[in-house]
Amino acid sequence: MNNAHISSAFDRDLESIQTLLMKMGGLVETALLDAATALEERDTDRAAEVRRGDLVIDALDEQINAECARVIALRAPTATDLRTVLTVMKISGNLERCGDYAKNLAKRTIVLAPERPIGSSAGSIRRLAKAVQTLLRDALDAFIRRDAALAENVRQRDRDVDEMYNALFREFVTYMMEDSGNISQMIHLHFIAKNIERVGDHATGIAEQVTYLITGAVPNDDRPKADTTAA
Predict the structure, then answer these.
(1) pLDDT in tens, 203-229
(2) CATH of domain 3-215
(3) What is the value of pTM for the model shown?
């Protein structure tokens, strides 16, 4: 088997795996936004769909990892080709965790559904989810386009997500201070917001893997952060 044929076969394998990865990314983006919308509208049916959809996301993660293992064993890729396969596996792992966070959001939505929404908190969470979904989409676009500048842009914008999360945290604390009856719902909403913020962290992790793919090294500077809630 000549080298040209091996290269062509590897390219076909890689294209197939990347197609699965983009399908998985699209499902995760949809799950995140659907979960946030279900919370705002107190839509338990949509929340249940998000929970069921996580099984599909998990199955894609397993399929991608199996395909990557097969390609490594069969094609023995080296250098940039090997980095590409390893990057796909890491991105798939990040997306699987994002799917888990969307599922967790849906679970808490079902718990909160019987309660009256407090203020504009659910709408604020939906806006946070939309910002994070955009971050995730751009990170995946950076991978497909091999765009190091866009990957770095995603890393920098994670600070904006943190600042939105900080504002939500302060809003929740205010509601709890105003009425102790709000505490239970605000605790649930805080965990929901934190899950969404963590999806932003995973989007940033994907962007860093894109940088690794293009340059052979992950960014060596500290990741921009603005989450001050621990203080």
Answers:
(1) 999 999 999 999 888 887 666 665 666
(2) 1.20.58.220
(3) 0.89
